[in-house]
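Below sits our specimen:

——
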Amino acid sequence: MASTTAAGGRSTMAEGIFRSLTKSNPRLGKIDSAGTSSYNNGSGPDSRTMAILEKNSILDYEHEARQVHTSDFTEFDYILAMDRDNLHSLQTIHRRLAKRVGTDATRAKVMLFGDFGGEMGEEVGDPYYGAIDGFEIAFQQLTNFSKKFISKVLEGQIPSK
């Protein structure tokens, strides 16, 4: 699962890219995206996100924004944050849940997605307040991170919890 603050741009773009890259791989399960806040709950992706996905032949993507649920930490093997602020928020939720239900019940690994880009700690910049070129840059980053992440998972280099 991919996560940002509002789940309208970067995380939804990451979900669309992941779905496109993993269509024919039965070893990869459920893919989703959610925000750490409820700003865009029920809304579709940013129109610029959709334009970039369509420009790159990802034509069958639909999404309705939602907020991260505690159940996400038991349903998903990996939760990927787009930046350090989101990573911190997700780690806080994860820690509180683990205290409440036990660490064995929380299977998700919470990680910074940019760690799969070649440079540890790389963030996916938030293009929301800029022009379409910011979404182009985010698409390139997310595609690169997705390919490397998927490769590492399939090779067993990133085991699930």
About this structure: Strands lie at 2-4, 33-35, 78-81, 109-112. DSSP finds five helices and four strands in the chain. The mean pLDDT is 86.
